Fold this protein.
Amino acid sequence: MGAKRAGIVGVGMTVQRSTRRDVSGVELINEAVRAALDDSGMTRKDIDAIVIGNMDHFEGINYVDTWSVDGSGALGKPIMKMTTGGTTGSTVAMGAYYHVASGMFDRVLAIGWEKNSESDTTGAIITAFDPFWDRPTFGGAVAGLALEATQYMAETGATEEDAAYVAVRDRKNAINNPFAHLRMESNIEAIMSTPYLAWPVKLGDMCPRTDGACAVVFASEDIAGDFPNVPAWVHGVADRHLWGYTSDPYVNQHVKGGTWFPAMERATRELYDKVGITDPLEQFDVAELYLPYSFAGLRYMESLGFCERAGGPALVRSGDTDMGGKCPVNPSGGVLSSNAIGATGLLRVAEVALQVQGRAGDRQVPGAKLGLATGFGGCYWSDELVIGKEKPEKARG
Amino acid sequence: MDDWREAQEVLVMDGGIKVPYSWSAGETGTTYLESLRDDKKFLGTRCPECGIVYHIPRRNCPDCFSECAEWVELGSSGELVTYTITRKHHPQLSPLKGVFGYAVIKLDGADTGFVHLISEFDESQLAKGARVEAVFAGEREGSILDVRYFRPVKAVS
Amino acid sequence: MEPVAIVGVGMTKFERDRVRDTFGDLVFEACTRALDDAGMTIDDIDIVLTGSNDFFDGRTISSMAIMDACGSYDKNVSTVEGDGTFGAAHAVMRVLAGWGTCLYCAHHKGSESVMPLITNAMFDPIYERFLGIDSVTSAALQARAYMDRYGVTEEQCAQVSVKNHGNAFKNPYAQLPLQLTIEDVLASPYVADPIKLLDCCPISDGASAVVIAGAQRAKALDAKPAWVKGIGYNCDAYHLGDRDLSKVDALQAASKTAYAQAGISDPAKEVDLAEVHDTFTYLELMAIEGLGLCRMGEAGEFTAFGNTAQDGRLPVNASGGCISSNPVLVAGLNSIIECALQIRGDAGEHQVDGVKTAVAQGVNGPCGQSQCVWVLGGDE
């Protein structure tokens, strides 16, 4: 008895597109759910519990858990809604993992989705911040990230071209992913020539707005061998969220130990300690990281321990994070290629699962055994999961 | 201790979430709403496995998950399953003036009910099983409010 | 189920308008009380879960408003958006998965928004929302369906209001103690037939928190634990016309799971006290039946005979229930807290003698679509 190990035994995703007018939100969810059930050789009846999430104000739906029943398959089943903003998809994955790890459920479906085409994404994101102190002046996700980028450039000497490398890398990878939204061969000059949204962030540096859904089936170690696919095992999860005000990330880093992104660094330390990671670049075969814009692909590599501080540009330009490198980052094309926000974090988890199962098709990293998936959101909320081919020695909470 | 807190009148800031939405009805919902708009006809979808005729229409059966691609034309009248008369209503939410109510109505030919408005009634006409009929809007634009409300069917004298 | 306990509880006083307190102020007050009750400091907490709702709070990622106040700094933290029974259930899962202690809090300020506009947004934007239906009018459809099916009368529903508002006099946290007669309730104006004003819960502000711990940590504390014996939750169909609104399928399914985990075969005999979702009076009657505390359709009579009174055979909502204070989302957590206090013998003036097994219920969605049931007990 006691805590259970959990594996991912099925994955379903819709194609990610700018607009999916052909389906309602519920129907979009159903598309991903049915794909995940088919993939795991199950029917709706086999599912024991469901965890679902999105961003309430992106679709204007209150109680998405009860509203989505026709699509999610929750009729007559336990369902719970978990929502943490941009991290929602990874939060839903962690929630479903804990459903199984608790020993209360054997087969749990995690669902993340979003139809960004149906609302004003920036208008809704601004409402994530304090109505008195932040909302009147906050410029939305792009402006907030631009503050991070300018600070990063000032302190490390990183350039806009370094960041553009990340955008080129991820969108090129997306060509191998039939589900991705933006799939394009690009180059640094092309990214540099896109218009500024908020200096130094250009259109080509940002993720798109996407409609899409993803569903993932988690199963208990007791039955994980009963499915057509070998399980992708959850080795450990951790998260941190330290802040609530827009200015916190740019000031607090200097007073609280002087680190870049303490939420990510502290989550990383806990997770790597639990799982036994000391050299992520060597130990991880693949990483699917929630990089909402290109500069994150430099800075977050440092917070995730892939290189020293300020080493992000050199790391990505070395090719170590390219397909064929030491640890390819975002073989799927990542968030810079598809960003249906509530689905995005769950897609990272699904992609790592497919990689360690050896089922990632044209985007497969040969022989991938251990991978890292992350979620980014809130006010620098950081969710992290390690997923591997080998069954972990013990349940790690 | 903390005297200044008690002496402080607090400020309250009025606000609102002002985000526009454009919800897609999807292909199934659009077919249904266009039928209301253009032909004043209610449509349901039939589950090929369960045989249930769903109204409002479903693209997939919520139970067995089969694709429900077959359209079934339904009557524009049916029976009250349950109802209420609203007495206090938020003005922003009132699609009708005067006395009105809500009902779950099972249209002729459907296996499930749906929620709509009721009006033009005497309270004595309302009961479980009472027959009601749709009153369509003159100008219809492809919305559930193309049906203005349901009213009791007058008994044939 | 492995042994898990509630080792600390905290509530704010519930009021119509706590204009002086922000969400964070309320959460800090509730969390501080829960930690004090457990004899802990925030350093003893391993992980934190929060409960809030973006629509009610008028804020995307509503949990961001209380991150400073809930003590989650440098801890694993997540958010369950929905009733407190669901959020606390997830806290139990994380403890079962290996975390030692979890602080879970939920907050609500009904005073800051417009309830009908928020609850209207539960309904489907294509087919139902533009009809203007909300929580009250949808509840009225269910009340009529339930009353028609079993011949339940408005008088029988009114008893619930009289009893629970009366119980609230003995609960210092309750918002709305009222001395009422059945005639008072029946004479109150209709809001949506058959629901009258005094059949309805108030709008409330407040927060609550619990500390949940695994057996090892629970036993090492001086705090009196209330043990989690079973948890079940279940969801019915969404569109109201898909459901037989007079039935309580989801509640029965949730109860079945929770009772099975708790080893309860005859709840009517084995349950000593219940705290149920009575935002409208008819819902308490449906809950009593759905929880198997009496037969279907008989809760009206069961109540009339005094069985569910504070001094009855099976007290229901001895705290005053949601009809006396209804901080949405917090409501189900309050039910859990009340059950824990009753089991510990710490319920003060509204303490019921000899409570060994207590049941709490919470709901999400329109007309009790998604139901969660907890069984709590005094023994590990």
